Amino acid sequence: MSHASQRPDIVSEGFGNPADPAVLLIMGAMASMSWWPEAFCRQLAGRGRFVIRYDNRDTGLSTKYPPGAPPYNFEDMVDDAIRVLDDHGVGKAHVVGMSMGGMLVQNVALKYPERVSALTVISSSPLGVDTSGLPGTTEAYKEHSAQGANVDWSNREQVLDFMVKDAGAIASTRHPFDEECTRAMVEADYDRSGGLASATNHFLLKGGGPKRTVRDLTAPLLVVHGTADPLFPIEHGEALAKVVPDARLVKIEGGGHEMHRSDWSQIIDAIVAHY
Q1: Could you write out the DSSP letters of every residue in 109-130?
Q2: Sign of the Cα pseudo-torsion (136, 238, 51, 213, in order)
Q3: b/e 196-211 (16+ beta carbons within 10 angstroms → b)
Q4: Which of 97, 105, 171, 248 is paired with 35 by a 20 to 30 Å CA distance?
Q5: Domain coordinates of the chain in residue numbers?
Q6: What is the pLDDT of residues 224-253, one digit of tens each?
Q7: Is residue 216 annotated as a catalytic residue, yes or no?
């Protein structure tokens, strides 16, 4: 059974038995909870975990602000994660973040160490560490994302086309890209959210909090990273695992900046084994 709980600004949903160890899933920029597919959440819950996913501000059914001027900062999104745990009566959780969500969970674990039993960072980069020597986003992906500037974010067809192309541009090189399935998911997300224009606010966020570094982490760290990630190349995951003592790195062979259904079992096994 899943149940939904709503506060004025953050909508979340739990799967499984609330008495089981909690896992909080935090998605990346522009992404609602829908980007943690329900089937993924149920599989993880079936392994004896209470799984919580939620809509970041400006996505899904959570509060939205006019595009171009978000009245909140990155630190507010860090605090949102804790408020979601409070909503579900969870004292401590294994926090799992993907992409920007990976930066959020590093901040959550450093700001609220008493609330975090473990953390998993998927397809992200080390917080507060010099990454200037690491490979950057691929030229091909930069070229694609520059086209986002030409998208009319109030035009449903333009947005859907761009988002599906975006998913294809960051997809696994090992598994075929399922364009039809991706389009259906993006359409459902768009319609549930009432459009994605507000979600572009995520690219305008200021920090808002003190400078933190993952070197100060005390919770056990798992890093999951695709070897073909064009946004944060694998060296980012390797660097993160290297700077944190006893961190574990799980490489997804051919994995892009996504969680392909064919890789779910490897990712879920790693999360469950970690905590």
Answers
A1: HHH-GGGEEEEEEES---TTS-
A2: negative
A3: bbbbbbbeebeeeeee
A4: 248
A5: 2-274
A6: 999 999 999 999 999 999 999 999 999 999
A7: no
* From 202, 225, 236, 257, the catalytic residue: 257
Identity of the amino acid at 143: E
Amino acid letter, residue 189? D
Q: Return d(Cα 181, Cα 146) in angstroms, integer.
A: 25
Q: Is 245 exposed, middle or buried (0-12, 13-18, 19+ CB in 10 A)?
A: exposed
| Element at 275 (helix H, strand E) | none
Active site residue 229: yes
> What kind of fold does domain 2-274 have according to CATH?
Rossmann fold (3.40.50)
pTM (whole model) above 0.85 = yes
Q: Active site includes 161?
A: no
The active-site residue, picked from 12, 62, 99, 193, is: 99
